[in-house]
Amino acid sequence: MRELWRSPTLRGALVYAASGLGFAGANLILARVLPTAEYGLFTLVIALVNLGFALAAVGIDGIVNRRQLEAGPNLLRRSLAASLLVGLTLAMIAAIAYRMSLPLLLIIFVSTAAGGAMVVAGAQFQSERRYGISLALTQSPNLALVIAAGAVLISNQRQAQLPLVISALGFVVAAGYGWRILFRERATKPARESWFPWAEALSLAGINASGLLLVQLDRLIIPYVLPLHDLATYGVLAAIAGSLFRVLQMGVGYTLIPRLRVAGSVPQRRRLIAHEAKLVGGIVVAGSVVIWLVTPLIERSFLLGKYHLGASLLLATLFSGVAKIMNAFTKSTVTALATPAEVSMVNLFGWVSVALAIPAALFGARWGLAGVIYGVGLGWLARAVTALLLTLRHLKLPTSVPVTAP
Q1: What is the dihedral of CA 96, 102, 107, 112, to 10 degrees?
Q2: pLDDT tens figures, 23-55
Q3: Which of 62, 233, 255, 393 could disulfide-link to 204, CB 3.0 to 4.6 Å?
Q4: How does pLDDT run across 331-364, given as a tens digit for each residue?
Q5: Residue 358 Ramachandran class (φ > 0 left, ψ -120 to 50 alpha, else beta)
Q6: Strand partners for 193
Q7: Which domain holds residue 371?
Q8: 159 and 91 part of one domain
């Protein structure tokens, strides 16, 4: 147990787990009390928001982790300009693709713009290894969802708009709080440069974007190929069976990057990755068994048979979850160690993986929801393997050169 607690990955994963429990609990409450159509709409908007606010930083969060930047007005202006543009673009896409109402479009815009600023602030604290406040910021949206679920229960509202409004306000509060602290501490930190190359930021943004699109791809494809009830079912499935893998995926990526950056040699990097992989692998095995046993109980006792989560859906979720964790290790290696040219190549192959996942999910839809999940999982697997192959040289031991007598 002492070895487990010493792992920053697992300590971070515990924080993500607590946040994930809040997310899962809020979703289960809303799935139970909201009509199926309203919960399906809530699931779709949250998917778009989660995609949007993480994309809104356009790679600035990655730059902050790779370089020492001054968290001042210039960085905030660049972050807000990018976030507002992404928020406007995403709202337009939602209007065209899903014909959403104006209030929902405003929610998506505000959540995306404020969320982008929040992500950059969280990345700044992460780069300083101040994991507590960084995680508090980046995981605050799940706390807002818990508050939103409570508000739905108290108010007896049965529409998706109320919890979505509360969620949007949570992004605004978190962004304001994070940047207020950074500005207050600015004078106490050594002088740093505020300039960074947009080309490198956009490459990192592309890697992040393809991964985030894969995270939400199931939810975005399901409304086009399956009934809305299947989208609601997927939301419940992700809350119960998918939470463990999402928590570990985020925990690995969050704490491994700064430690790989300071690892001074290839053997240190290999030991670090092997140690974390062994611990995470043990949790995956144990957690998968628990998920297999507990999911039917939750389905019957809490959801009262409203949603059916069969063995085929659980197997598909386990396959997809393992592929996501593999990707977390390879993406961390890329962010921490790859050259700008390698980052560009990984970005390209990340989008190739998305291009593979979309037709695979559409083809898999003929076998129902499980087929869609397997199709997207195939994209995750391809993304992880290509990133590993492109950055493997950073983990290879140097070839010893025999010494010969003159």
Answers
A1: 40
A2: 778 888 888 888 888 888 898 899 899 888 878
A3: 62
A4: 888 877 878 788 788 888 888 999 999 999 999 9
A5: alpha
A6: 69
A7: 1-11+198-395
A8: yes
